Amino acid sequence: MVGGEIFVPKIPSMKLVDLFEALVPKAQRRVVGIRPGEKIHEALLTETEVRHSLELQDYYLVLPEQSEIFNIKSRFSKYFEMGAPLAGGFVYTSNSNSRWLTPGDLQALIRNLEL
After folding, report:
1. Of 32, 68, 72, 93, which residue is most buried, by most CB within 10 angstroms?
2. C-alpha separations of 46 from 32, 74, 86 in Å
3. Phi/psi class of residue 12: alpha, beta or left (left: φ > 0; alpha: ψ in -120 to 50)?
4. Coil, strand or helix: which one is 49?
5. Cα gap 115→112, rounded to integer Å
6. Calpha distance 34→46 (Å, rounded)
7. Is residue 6 within 8 Å of residue 61, measured between CB atoms?
8. What are phi and psi of 67, to 5 degrees?
9. Quick one: residue 100, left, alpha or beta (phi over 0 = left, psi -120 to 50 = alpha)?
10. What is the pLDDT of residues 90-114, one digit of tens each?
11. Are strands 59-62 and 53-55 parallel, antiparallel or unpaired?
């Protein structure tokens, strides 16, 4: 880390109904609909942030916007060598993710944590 950058890990998404199924499979559920202020999907990297972001192997890197103030190219040169700029229009949101956890996947992760 150089300082001033934000790391966004490439992690799988999971449907809320699958989360409930993994944690409390026999629980009774009642669908009440979306509530005021509630989001359906999480935006982890917005179209605005993409303009000053890089894609690396395991994460996205959001650099400071003020490139002339922060001397971005030289200060963060190691990241430019490791990754590539993102294409315009790209967004990283929970619903556009290509990796998804199933209830069984989450249960396996929890079992591994308990060991």
Report:
1. 72
2. 29, 25, 11
3. beta
4. helix
5. 5
6. 22
7. yes
8. -60, -35
9. beta
10. 999 999 989 999 999 999 999 998 7
11. antiparallel
Could you state, in order of their start, the residue ranges of all structural domains in the chain? 6-27+36-114
- Which residue matches tokens 């989450």? 106
CA distance 115 to 113: 5
Q: Tell me the C-alpha distance between 113 and 15, whole Å.
A: 21
**Would you say 55 and 86 are in contact if contact means Cβ atoms under 8 Å apart?**
yes
Local structure of 92: helix, strand or coil: strand
CB 26 within 8 A of CB 14: no
Q: At which residue do the structure tokens 């079992």 appear?
A: 111
pLDDT < 70 regions, the chain: 67-70, 115
> Could you identify the residue written with the tokens 């190219």?
73
